Amino acid sequence: MASTSDKVIISCAVTGSVHTPTMSEYLPLTPDEIAEQAIAAAEAGAAILHLHARDPRDGRPSSDPAVFDQFVPRIRDATDAVINITTGGSTRMTLEERLAYPLQAKPEMCSLNMGSMNFSIHPAARRVSEWKYDWEQAHVEGMEDLIFRNTFRDIKHILKVLGEDCGTRFEFECYDLGHLYNLAHFVDEGLIQGPLFIQSIYGILGGMGPDPENLVTMRSTADRLFGRDGYRFSILGAGRHQMRLLTMGAVMGGNVRVGLEDSLYLGKGQLAKTCAEQVQKIRRILEELSLEIATPDEARATLGLKGRHAVGF
């Protein structure tokens, strides 16, 4: 039997802020839909649930704590999964908006993008001829002229007000090799202590491409910077690259992230109807490779989380 630290942690990012309702009828938009999909993903084997909010009227990204409050406590009551709240929000949100609910909820874990970057899916607008809601086209096409901002000062602020003050630990989202060096800077400054949970991300325009060689480069660089025992590695493959990169990463000793935030599909030309379908698929692949799946409490122990009793919701 594998030790707790050898088991694969499955994260599930339920809805995100990038995809729009027109792109998939199955994308969860309302608090009920987000809660239902998150709970089903946990039942399928996801130890960590990565959560964004959307305006229930039209599905646009929302930072409103009142919207989060309609589904986060419900998920907490129905599962023992680790609840991970975004601090990324969307490229159109201010830092204050992005932190509004995390500072209220004081969750066990939050995501933390390790640098400012171009982040866009604007080419996807060319494949859409008719939009369901008026806001969608401008949202997608407008990404061409936007950046996601997380300066060194922004990151330092998040580490202080959420990490130090609330005891929240982080899913360090690294979209490029330089983000690993940014993370190492904060470790060297004494602002971050291990164990680190590094989410390496491939296939987003503006970040690293989905080439398998990039996964190897990220893994070997993280080994040099932090030591193999100083961090837990996880893999996020965007869109059609999801399952093949996750499988490769798991074979290399990594953890995995699925969910409709990252990919709308289950297979070629087949929309995923739920996040749970993606969890079930990657779980089957991992178990066929004789890899064991971590429970939420095993993920807590591996990542040094404060526990569900210590959150603010």
UniProtKB/TrEMBL annotation:
Keywords: Metal-binding, Transferase, Zinc
Residues spanning the signal sequence: none
Any one GO molecular function term: metal ion binding
One Pfam family recorded for the sequence: BKACE
Cofactor(s) annotated in UniProt: Zn(2+)
InterPro entries cross-referenced by the UniProt entry: Aldolase_TIM (IPR013785), BKACE (IPR008567)
Protein name, entry field: 3-keto-5-aminohexanoate cleavage protein
